[in-house]
């Protein structure tokens, strides 16, 4: 089976969409139906690719309990919610021939980086969390449904945001520990900005918080959030041909904590932004310490 034969397959869903496309009269409706066809074809392409991979010879690992090589139990279906829709496919699973209680092992799942109980693809979680940065969870759920036709509850989005937050905190802790041991992160600055002057600054801003977490009850509590900025300054010509300085790139750091908490985080981001190789570094602040 090849991708070029997808459209010609006897697929009732695709046929319905193509019929709707032929009968559509307005431009905007043609656009929306074409978009739906594109998503449906993307699902078919994924199925073909995953099926091709599943049909390749499987290198079975040994049982982690008894050490015996696992034995294939045939093809077992799996389904994943993705940004292009629900993708079903089949892959080989194996079990220990001695009956060790290790469950079913699917080598292809491991190659794809999938957890055994995972039902939602990481890119769908990513886009859901990205929407939740700008709008409430309920609105993010509605937007996902309207934009790509995926039903995701606002509760699921809330759980994913917390999951991403915990993972981000753990990653930050590891990076700060490496930094304290003199093993800073590798620079991640784009080569276009690496030779520009770098400016660092810090300040604080008062932000309203709920008196009790997770509850809107009680008076507003104002707390100071320490903020830092790392910017690359470039030279540009304005409409009159005069050279002016302007921010070419900036990165922000913020923490609800002390100056020292901000300092170590700002230092970590400064290393990422290539402070050690910057041709010129300037620090502007009214008094934040920690660097």
Distance between the termini: 60 Å
Biggest sheet: strand arrangement = 5-4-3-6
Arithmetic mean of pLDDT: 88
Portion in beta strands: 15-25%
Total of DSSP H or I helical runs spanning 4+ residues: 7
Report the principal-axis shape. Answer: extended
Computed over alpha carbons, the radius of gyration is 26 Å
Assign the structural class, choosing from mainly alpha, mainly beta, alpha/beta, alpha+beta, or little secondary structure: alpha+beta
Uncertain spans: none
Report the helical percentage. Answer: 25-40%
**Strand tally:** 6
> What is the string of SSEs from the N terminus onward?
HHEEHHHHEEEHE
Major beta-sheet overview: 4 strands, mixed
Question: Could you write a compact summary of the structure shown?
Answer:
38% of the residues lie in helices and 24% in strands. By secondary structure, the chain is of the alpha+beta class. The N and C termini lie far apart (60 Å).
Please tell me about this protein's structure:
It is a single chain. The protein is of the alpha+beta class. The protein has seven helices and six strands; from the N terminus they run ααββααααβββαβ. The strands form two sheets. Strands 5-4-3-6 form a four-stranded mixed beta sheet, with helices on one face. A two-stranded antiparallel sheet has the order 1-2. Helix 4 crosses helix 6 and helix 5 (137-148) crosses helix 6. It is extended.
Task: Explain the layout of strands and helices.
Blueprint: H1 12-23, H2 27-54, E1 71-82, E2 85-95, H3 107-111, H4 122-134, H5 137-148, H6 154-180, E3 198-209, E4 221-237, E5 243-255, H7 259-272, E6 281-285
Parallel strand pairs: 3-6
Antiparallel strand pairs: 1-2, 3-4, 4-5
Helix pairs in contact: 1-2, 4-6, 5-6
């Amino acid at each position: 089976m090849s991708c070029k034969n997808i459209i010609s397959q006897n697929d009732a869903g695709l046929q319905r969409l193509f019929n709707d496309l032929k009968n559509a009269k307005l431009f905007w409706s043609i656009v929306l139906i074409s978009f739906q066809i594109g998503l449906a074809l993307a699902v078919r392409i994924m199925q073909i690719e995953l099926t091709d991979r599943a049909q390749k010879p499987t290198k079975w690992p040994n049982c982690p309990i008894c050490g015996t090589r696992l034995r294939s139990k045939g093809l077992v279906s799996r389904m994943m919610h993705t940004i292009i829709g629900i993708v079903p496919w089949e892959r080989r699973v194996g079990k220990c021939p001695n009956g060790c209680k290790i469950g079913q092992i699917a080598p292809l799942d491991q190659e794809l980086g999938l957890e055994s109980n995972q039902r939602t693809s990481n890119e769908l979680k990513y886009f859901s969390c990205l929407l939740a940065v700008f709008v409430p969870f309920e609105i993010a759920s509605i937007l996902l449904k309207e934009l790509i036709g995926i039903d995701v509850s606002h509760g699921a989005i809330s759980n994913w945001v917390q999951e991403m937050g915990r993972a981000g905190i753990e990653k930050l802790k590891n990076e700060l520990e490496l930094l304290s041991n003199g093993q800073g992160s590798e620079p991640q600055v784009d080569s276009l900005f690496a030779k520009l002057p770098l400016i660092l600054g810090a300040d604080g801003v008062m932000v309203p918080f709920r008196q009790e977490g997770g509850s809107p009850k009680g008076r507003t509590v104002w707390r100071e959030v320490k903020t830092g900025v790392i910017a690359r300054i470039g030279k540009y010509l304005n409409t009159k041909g005069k050279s002016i300085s302007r921010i070419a790139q900036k990165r922000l750091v913020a923490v609800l904590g002390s100056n020292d908490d901000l300092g170590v985080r700002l230092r970590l981001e400064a290393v990422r932004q290539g402070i050690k190789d910057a041709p010129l570094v300037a620090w502007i602040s009214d008094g934040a310490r920690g660097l």
